[in-house]
Automatic annotation (TrEMBL):
Species for this entry: Gluconobacter thailandicus NBRC 3257
Keyword annotations from UniProtKB, A to Z: Lipoprotein, Signal
One matching Pfam family: MlaA
Protein name in the entry: Lipoprotein
Family per record: Belongs to the MlaA family.
PANTHER family: INTERMEMBRANE PHOSPHOLIPID TRANSPORT SYSTEM LIPOPROTEIN MLAA (PTHR30035:SF3), LIPOPROTEIN VACJ-RELATED (PTHR30035)
Classification via InterPro entries: MlaA
């Protein structure tokens, strides 16, 4: 990210604010002063998507049965739960934190290290929270929009949140012995492939139907991100789960 921002300091990769009032309003609404750089990074990812990621994702869907792919998704969700838990705690949402704690506890035990999503069956549904969202509830400004290859849409705040989320994910601290490091690599690689496989149809439709896919992705992501933060701020549920009442 630091390298990208250093490049972004170059005039050709940075859009200065326009002087026309209408254009300035659009400029501020887009929140994308590094648009020339971001478009280049978007094009890099889409080149890699068409050359390698899409064919691999298609082969993955064809070769790997759906129950196996679902299991890999469960593992990824379960091993992210500690980051979700600490993010919920940081946002002051005990009910959400309790749900994520129970999901991790149940799925790591009864779900056999996350292979099965037993927690959802007993009332603890999966929800998305990350450190970037938590900082958003604190009022931390998002900063300019960024597109980071192989990470996707982000901004200064969520870029820092992504790093914190990785630090809070326990699988990233596995020791080298007993084949656990190999498991860590497999977990990350297969999780990435499965994520792209689940998004192939959406990406294809986006490229076919949108006149400017980059702008559409930027706008949709920013709106969805703000809606996630608003939903978390407005989550005032009681601490005890629904099934207890």
């Amino acid at each position: 990210m630091l390298a990208l921002l250093t490049l972004g300091a170059c005039g050709s990769l940075h859009n200065p604010p326009p002087t026309d009032p209408d254009d300035l309003a659009d400029y501020k609404a887009a929140n994308d002063p590094y648009e020339p750089l971001n478009r280049k990074m978007y094009n890099v990812q889409m080149w890699a998507y068409h050359v390698a990621l899409r064919p691999v994702a298609k082969a993955w869907v064809w070769a790997v049965p759906k129950p196996v792919r679902h299991t890999i998704s469960n593992i990824n969700e379960t091993w992210r739960e500690p980051a979700v838990f600490f993010s919920d705690v940081g946002a002051g949402k005990p009910r959400r934190a309790g749900d994520s704690f129970m999901r991790f506890t149940i799925n790591m035990s009864a779900g056999v290290a996350g292979f099965f999503d037993v927690a959802s069956l007993v009332g603890y549904k999966q929800h998305e929270t990350d450190p970037g969202m938590t900082m958003g509830t604190w009022g931390v400004p998002s900063g300019p929009y960024l597109f980071i290859p192989f990470v996707g849409p982000s901004n200064f705040r969520d870029g820092a949140g992504y790093a914190l989320g990785q630090a809070l994910t326990p699988i990233n601290y596995v020791p080298r012995g007993y084949g656990l490091l190999t498991f860590n690599w497999a977990y990350n690689i297969l999780g990435t492939v499965d994520g792209f496989a689940n998004s192939v149809d959406q990406i294809d439709h986006l490229e076919q139907d949108s006149l400017d896919p980059y702008s559409y992705v930027r706008s949709a992501w920013q709106q969805n991100r703000q809606s996630q933060i608003d939903a978390m701020q407005n989550d005032h549920r009681a601490t005890t789960p629904d099934w207890y009442n």
